[in-house]
Amino acid sequence: MRRSADELNKMRKAGKVVAEMHEATRAAIRPGVTTRQLNEIAAEVLTKRGARSNFLNYHGFPAVICTSPNDMIVHGIPGDYTLREGDIISVDCGAIIEGYHGDAAYTAGVGVISDEATRLIEVTERSLWAGIDQLKKGNRLNEVGRAVQNVAEAAGYSVVREYVGHAIGTAMHESPQVPNYWPGTPGPTLKEGMVFAIEPMVNVGSYETYVLDDGWGVMTQDGSLSAHFEHTIAITDNGPEVFTAS
Ligand code: MG
Ligand code: MG
After folding, report:
1. pTM for the full model?
2. Which tens digits make up the pLDDT trace of 106-141?
3. Which of 93, 123, 137, 158 is 20 to 30 Å from 205 at the Cα level?
4. Ion ligand 1: residues, Cβ under 5 Å
């Protein structure tokens, strides 16, 4: 769906709040901090900016961010988990301003991390930007997934299949979905005013997943590390505009 200039302005504001949630949580990441504390820090940003949470109560989700350490891919519920030196932690944040949504995620290291973890984070973020580069009017949507997959697989990693990016606007998850791999068909033609959340999830090992008994946390089947980066991006006449970048 194409958004008006007024709608894009509201999404720009929502994106700024999400970027601020990233900055505030990132600054707090260190050994000894619990994921519940990161959630509280993000909730304070929402309150301060007069934004609503799109995560809280989403199908019953109990927090304003997702926190997914190490071999957890996405959707982790913040709680008693205490960050340890050498962990990696994926933090997914969202906000609503005047009915319009922003959604973005990052993965960070806790203290000193392994060379493999450092490389995984670097490759996953680079795969996101390769996908964003494809968000140009006239291009086909599934070129995003092809670009993401090329970067991740060239590094020897795999791209998660079951969880994908999405259009975003007056709901967090709108159609169409945006796979992080080439699905075999080119998908819709991109037009200015369309807005997407692009979100590669990249595993060191295989792309297979399972869900924890809590019904939320998505894990790598083989226990390998996973990273997740996401931005909310509009297609403009001048190329992609990233609403959630700091
Ligand atoms: Mg997200
Ligand atoms: Mg998303």
Report:
1. 0.98
2. 999 999 999 999 999 999 999 999 999 999 999 999
3. 93
4. 92, 103, 105, 230
